[in-house]
Amino acid sequence: MDQKNRERAEAWLRYADDIGLGPFYTARASQSPLEVALASSSEIGGVRSAEILAPVSNSVLASAAPGRVTQAAAASKVTPAPVAASPVNAPPVTVLPVFGPLLFDERIEGDTLERIRADIGPNCTRCKLHKGRTKIVFGVGNPKADLVFVGEGPGRDEDAQGEPFVGRAGKLLTQMIEAMGLRREDVYIANVVKCRPPENRLPEKDEIETCSPFLMRQLAVIQPKVICCLGSCSSQTLLQTSQGISRFRGEWFDFRGSKLIATYHPAYLLRNPVAKSEVWKDLQKVMAVLGLKPKRR
User: Fold this and answer.
1) CATH assignment, 113-290
2) Each residue's pLDDT tens digit, 144-165
3) What is the DSSP code string of 52-91?
4) Strand 147-151 versus strand 47-48 pairing type
5) pTM > 0.70: yes or no
């Protein structure tokens, strides 16, 4: 195992210990990451893990599990067509293989938002984002919300207040929610990572891999009818794709019992106001699913 993969494995081991899943991993220690992923019964975006692994190239398989690649995989010269959580009439979405999250993606019986917050702890140091953090931004809103908005990570104002979407983009999100006929406290708002990336940059891959399992647990506890991903980072993370958001924005996906839709981030709308009409079309689709009527002006 090279150094990069070793560091990823160690990070997931520490996470497993933090949430009491050490025995879960130990029981599978004799298996390769590929075998564990294939054996997993969990689903990502409505696709079984074996299906998610279909697009993996032979070189990736060989590096993930030396000496364990099947003859069929080794003989294949063409990467199979990617399989994703298929929306109706949507462009194909390329699914990226990620072994780590699959290992610890199973639901935790009796899990609660309070338990997840406690598992993160007040002084989390699991990734490098903690170095510049003021406050951990866990999430806020109705714990039984039908609608959950997921952003990428906290900004300066969020880092200072410990609450997601409270800056300029947050105010715009609040207006969007109210235009749907809801209040901010009716929905739940969270991010892919809980600590502010320096200079408000996008979260990096290792930071997402370390922190996103807590988001997955939040979504599993809330079990919303609709998840609305705001921007590329959150939608690519949940859908496990490298495609740009413009390829699948406004389309419906099945995500572990919820309906998922992606739209542009409010921060993008502040820079590109002309895109607000496209986002409103996406929100109207959400309203139709939830049986909401727009707020009268």
Assistant:
1) 3.40.470.10
2) 999 999 999 999 999 999 999 9
3) HTTT--HHHHHHHSTT---HHHHH--SPPPP---PPTT--
4) unpaired
5) no
